[in-house]
TrEMBL record:
Residues 152-317, 396-473 form the FAD/NAD(P)-binding domain. Gene3D superfamilies: Alpha-helical ferredoxin, FAD/NAD(P)-binding domain. InterPro entries: DPD_II, FAD/NAD-bd_sf, FAD/NAD-binding_dom, Glut_synth_ssu1, Glutamate_Synthase, Helical_ferredxn. Its EC number is 1.4.1.13, 1.4.1.14. Pathway: Amino-acid biosynthesis. The lineage of its organism: Bacteria, Bacillati, Bacillota, Bacilli, Bacillales. Pfam families: Fer4_20, Pyr_redox_2. This is Glutamate synthase (NADPH/NADH) small chain. PANTHER family: GLUTAMATE SYNTHASE [NADPH] SMALL CHAIN.
Amino acid sequence: MVKTAFIDIKRTEPKEAHPRERLKNWNEYQQNLSDSDLKSQSSRCMDCGIPFCQIGMDLNRATTGCPLYNLIPEWNELVYQGKWYEAYQRLAKTNNFPEFTGRACPAPCEGSCTAGLVSSPVAIKSIEQAIIDKAFDKGWVNVRTPKKRTGFRVAVVGSGPAGLAGADQLNQAGHDVTVYEREDRIGGLLMYGIPNMKIDKQVVGRRVELLKKEGIAFITNTNIGKDITMAELRKQYDAVLLCTGAAKHRELLIEGRELKGIYPAMTYLTASTKHLLNPESTHPEISAKGKKVIVIGGGDTGADCVATALRQGCQSVVQFGKHGRLPNERTADNPWPEYPQVFKMEYAYKEAAAVFGKDPREYHVSTKRFIGDGGGQVKALETVAFESYFDEKGNKQLRENHEEKQTWAADLVLIAAGFEGAEDDVFENLNVENNNQCIKTKKNRFETALQGVFAAGDARKGQSLIVWAIQEGRKAAEEVDAYLSRKV
Ligand SMILES: Cc1cc2nc3c(=O)[nH]c(=O)nc-3n(C[C@H](O)[C@H](O)[C@H](O)COP(=O)(O)OP(=O)(O)OC[C@H]3O[C@@H](n4cnc5c(N)ncnc54)[C@H](O)[C@@H]3O)c2cc1C
Ligand code: SF4
C-alpha cells in the first residue's frame, strides 16, 4: 500500500482489443494489464479498516461489494509486493472460479470501493483476472485429489457456476459427486449464454477438466425429471443439490409473435456458441448475417445479442430499452456504496458505434406489434414511446404515449426482456415447491421440504450473477456436508 496512491495514480480501465479488430473474431475482447501497471493499480488500495469492497449484500435491489467476501485488500497488497503465488492462494480461498468472475463479473466490489468516494475505484477486477491467469500460466492451479473418501454419494443437477462450485466443495470434502447436465456440454450459462468474447469456452473446459481429474463425474445429455426421475435419483444418492438455473424467459405476447424470425435471446445465443464450437451445428435462419436486427430489452443479455449479431455480420442492429438513459454520475438516490446506476459504454455498444457510427440503444421504447411480409416472416415492428411521470405517492412510473408511434424494419428480432425464474418443468418434474418462480427452501437455508434435497444458484435466488451462483453453491455445499455428517 502507498498511502496517497489512490490520489496520485489514476485508475487504469481494463485493457481491451480495439472494437474494429476484435469484431473480426470471437476471441475474448479483454486483455490483462502489464505487471508494472498492475503493481501501480494495486498500490491504489488503501487497505481500509472496513473494506467495503468485501461487504457482499443486496442494497436497493443491486449487489454491493463482493458476495464471495474475496480477500481483496490482502491480494491487492500481495500483487503490489510482487508476491503473485501468495496472491493466488488468498484468492483461491474464497473463490472457486476467479477465471469466470475476473472476466465477466460486473464488479460490485468496485462500485463500493472507498477510493471511489473521492476518486476512481481500485481496478479490482483487472487485478483478479491477472492473478488467476498468471496462476494457470505458471502451473500453480493443480489437481487437488481429496485424501479420504466418505462413501457418501451426492448428485448435483445443473452444471452452471452454482452446480460446479457446489460439486467442487463437496468433492473436496470427500464425497463422491456426480453432476448431471441436460445440455451436451458442461458449464450452464458460462457455456451457452455468455458469449465466447466474454468467457472463452476453453477457459470453461480447462476448469471442467481439472474438476474431472479431482474425481467429479459429469453426465451430459441427461435431463433429471425426464430421463431419470427425482425418485430414482434420491434412491441412488445420499443427497441431491438442484442448481437448475432460472431460464424461464419473459415472453412478449403481442400481435405477430408467431412470425418467423423472432427468437428468445437465449435460443439465439446458444445457437451461436454451438455453431462456434461445432461448425456443423448451423441454423442459418437464426444467424444475423446480412439482416436488420432488433433486440428487445435493454439489459446485459441484450448487449450480448448486439455483440453476437455484429460478429455474424448483421446489416444493422438496434436495441430497445424500456427505461431512459442512465445519468453520467450517481444521483442523490443512488449513493455510495450502492452499485452505481450510471451510463456505461459496454463492450457491445463500443463495437456497434465503431461499425455504424452510433450507439445502438434506443430508450423508452414499447413494442406493440410485429408486422409480417405476407409470407410468414417478420419484416417490421411497431412501437410507441414510454414517458415517465410521478404518481400521487411521488414514485416515478412509465406510461405509453401513443402519439409517438414508429415503425422499424427488421428481419431478425431477439427478445431479451429478462427472466421470470426457474422453468415450470422444475416444479412439475422435480417435486419441489414454487416460491415466486424460484425453488422454495427453508428460511435462510438451502434445504427444500424434501429430505436430503437442496437448491442453490439462480434456481433458488432468481436470475442473478456468476459471483452469487458461486457463493450459493459454496454455502449449499456446507449445508449438504453438515446433513451427511449427521448421517454417519
Ligand atoms: C446471456 C446472459 C449473459 C450473462 N452474463 C453475465 C455476466 O457477464 N456476468 C455475470 O456475473 N452474470 C451473467 N449472467 C448471469 C449468470 O450467467 C447466471 O447468474 C449464472 O450462470 C447462474 O448460475 P446457475 O449455476 O445458478 O445456473 P445456470 O448457469 O443457468 O446453469 C443451470 C444449468 O442447469 C441445467 N439444467 C436445468 N434443468 C436441468 C435438469 N432437469 N436436468 C439436468 N440439467 C438441468 C441447465 O441446462 C444449465 O446448464 C448472464 C446471464 C445470461 C442469460
Ligand atoms: S474498499 Fe477499495 S481501497 Fe478499500 S480495501 Fe477495498 S479495494 Fe482497497
